[in-house]
Write a structure and sequence with these properties.
Elements lengths: L4 H13 L2 H10 L2 H23 L5 H37 L3 H8 L1 H28 L13 H9 L14 H12 L9 E7 L6 H9 L2 H4 L4 E8 L4 H13 L8 H12 L4 E8 L4 H11 L6 E7 L2 H6 L4 E3 L1
Parallel strand pairs: 1-4, 1-5, 2-3, 3-4
Helix pairs in contact: 1-3, 1-4, 1-7, 3-6, 4-6, 8-9, 11-12
């Protein structure tokens, strides 16, 4: 089978359009319906793309059709990038309180209306182009086939690590100190050996970078005998998370398959040790799932801390956070 480049591009665009971070931006601008329509338009074409790529050398007309699809997909990708950039620019300006003139310009009602109109109009033009392309595909009698790669691609794109260069976190010293103070604070009354702190904020505000900076602060973090980093994202699977924690502790992926043996292995590494566990990009709002994981983490020494990064305050509440930093 020929390399399914177009199919992969379509799957990537659908993943981007359906990502929780972009969904928040869409709601912020009131464009969620427009982006949903665009996603469904691409989804409707996706099933024919595998067959189209295999047959593309059979005729000049088919090569031209594929070229039109590529151009339209590039337009979608450019639109997503421009939309996300403008939204993040607004957030950065609001957070850093730049010059009054720039703030007035970006947050003025005419500017917001103009940007929303421009994006809405571009989405309409792209959808019309894609619909015309979709109609023209009927002449080629493609066999529709679908391989669902989106979940894996989305998960891989969100995977984070604990490493960061010092110069990547600029102007966040106060934020970093505030988080570290919360982590090592011994005056807060905590009934259990472990406690959870949450960094809460919309996508793109640098929550992961802030957590990475805290994790790599050698002077302050010597307070903890063991530091662990796991990236969670959307699927809150307790067994998978336990495997990741063990891998972070040992540097090796565990070969154990049974949950009972996994939990025993986990406790070997954390029981009696004051640890810091950072759980990056948490979405889970199911309290029972959190309790099931927390039960396995209780053996740490008094003063152990779990730091989560999340986009939603509801998640921080689900994890019984004693403090939330926004």
């Amino acid at each position: 089978m020929a390399e399914s480049i177009l199919f992969n591009v379509a799957a990537s665009l659908i993943a981007k359009l359906g990502s929780p971070a972009l969904a928040e931006f869409q709601l912020l601008w009131g464009l969620d319906d427009e982006f949903d329509k665009l996603k469904h338009t691409i989804s409707a074409m996706e099933a024919a793309l595998l067959d189209a790529e295999e047959q593309q050398f059979k005729s000049h007309e088919l090569k031209n059709w594929i070229s039109r699809v590529k151009d339209a997909f590039y337009d979608v990708d450019d639109l997503i990038d421009e939309f996300a950039y403008e939204t993040l620019r607004r957030q950065v300006i609001a957070k850093t309180k730049r010059g009054a003139k720039e703030v007035r310009q970006v947050f003025s009602m005419p500017h917001q209306i103009a940007f929303r109109f421009k994006v809405s109009h571009r989405i309409k033009d792209i959808r019309e182009k894609l619909n015309a392309i979709d109609v023209d595909k009927n002449q080629f009698h493609f066999t529709e086939r679908v391989i669902d790669t989106r979940n894996d691609e989305l998960r891989k794109s969100r995977e984070t690590s604990s490493f960061i260069y010092d110069d990547e976190v600029v102007g966040r010293n106060d934020d970093k100190k505030a988080i570290m103070d919360l982590l090592i604070d011994t005056t807060t009354k905590v009934n259990e050996n472990i406690a959870t702190i949450a960094i809460v904020g919309m996508g793109g505000l640098g929550k992961t970078a802030l957590a990475q900076s805290v994790y790599n602060n050698k002077n302050e973090m010597e307070h903890f005998r063991l530091k662990l980093w796991v990236c969670i994202s959307e699927q809150f699977d307790v067994k998978v998370i336990v495997e990741k924690i063990i891998e972070s502790a040992t540097g090796k992926k565990p070969e154990i398959l049974q949950m009972d043996l996994l939990q025993s292995e986990l406790r070997k590494h954390i029981d009696g040790r004051k640890y810091l566990l950072i759980m990056d990009d948490v979405w889970n709002e199911d309290h029972e799932k959190w309790v099931n994981l927390k039960r396995l983490l209780m053996g740490g020494a008094k003063g152990s801390r779990i730091l989560i990064t999340t986009r939603h305050q509801r998640v921080a509440e689900t994890f019984d956070s004693i403090s939330s930093y926004a």
